[in-house]
Amino acid sequence: MRVGIGYDIHRLKAGRKLILGGVLIPFAKGLMGHSDGDVLLHALTDAVLGALGAGDIGDHFSDKDPRWKGADSRMFAEMALSILKKRRFRIVNMDVVLLAEKPKLTLYKQKIRASVAKIFNVPSSSVSIKVKTNEGLDAVGKGQAMACYAVVSLRKG
Ligand code: MG
Prior knowledge:
Blueprint: E1 2-14, E2 18-20, E3 23-25, E4 29-31, H1 39-52, H2 57-60, H3 74-86, E5 89-99, H4 109-119, E6 127-132, H5 138-141, E7 145-156
Parallel strand pairs: 5-6
Antiparallel strand pairs: 1-4, 1-7, 2-3, 5-7
Helix pairs in contact: 1-3
Bound molecules: magnesium ion (MG).
């Protein structure tokens, strides 16, 4: 049994698409980044890589590399999954805490859960998505950014 943790934060910018866990969410702002800015998939992918002892997204995909500009973050998850398969591990469960002041994401939790389950090829019952505000505090609370924590456990075989 192995456990990994992932964390990420991205700034919000007007006019960008907001994509969380591969789901397009209607909102006036989206997450900035070299890729599509999917903070939730980045935290989850880093948690998988962490559990494998395989570095982080930045080690595999440089944010200076023009090839990954505007990249669909599902590609990062697929890279982590290919390492996982090579090493003969499987995902037991994934637990996510997403911090976002706005929009109200409660309505999208099940959709994000289903999307994450599909991306990582696990049943929805193995995925937990929690959304919280930051109670108006700090950059996340002021609506300038979204942050995400993720924990993933793996089992051999
Ligand atoms: Mg990121």
